[in-house]
Amino acid sequence: MAELESIETAAEHERILREIESTDTACIGPTLRSVYDGEEHGRFMEKLEARIRNHDREIEKMCNFHYQGFVDSITELLKVRGEAQKLKNQVTDTNRKLQSEGKELIIAMEELKQCRLQQRNISATVDKLTLCLPVLEMYSKLREQMKSKRHYPALKTLEHLEHTYLPQVSHYRFCKVMVDNIPKLREEIKEVSMSDLKDFLESIRKHSDKIGEMAMKQAQQQRNLDNIVSQHPRISGGKKSKKEACAGSDLEVKNTSPMSEQDSGILDVEDEEEDEEVPGAQELVDFSPVYRCLHIYTVLGARETFENYYRKQRRKQARLVLQPPSNMHETLDGYRKYFNQIVGFFVVEDHILHTTQGLVNRAYIDELWEMALSKTIAALRTHSSYCSDPSLVLDLKNLIVLFADTLQGYGFPVNQLFDMLLEIQDQYSETLLKKWSGVFRNILDSDNYSPIPVTNEEIYKKIVGQFPFQDAELEKQPFPKKFPFSEFVPKVYNQIKEFIYACLKFSEDLHLSSTEVDDMIRKSTNLLLTRTLSNCLQNVIKRKNVGLTELVQIIINTTHLEKSCKFLEEFITNITNVLPETVHTTKLYGTTTFKDARHAAEEEIYTNLNQKIDQFLQLADYDWMALEPGSRASDYLVDLIGFLRSTFAVFTHLPGDVDAHSTMSGKVAQTACMSACKHLSTSLMQLLLEAEVRQLTLGALQQFNLDVEECEQFARSGPVPGFQGDTLQLAFIDLRQLLDLFIQWDWSTYLADYGQPTCKYLRVNPTTALVLLEKMRDTSRKNNVFAQFRKNERDKQKLIDTVAKQLRGLINSHHS
Question: Is the per-residue pLDDT at 584 higher than 70?
Answer without folding.
Answer: no
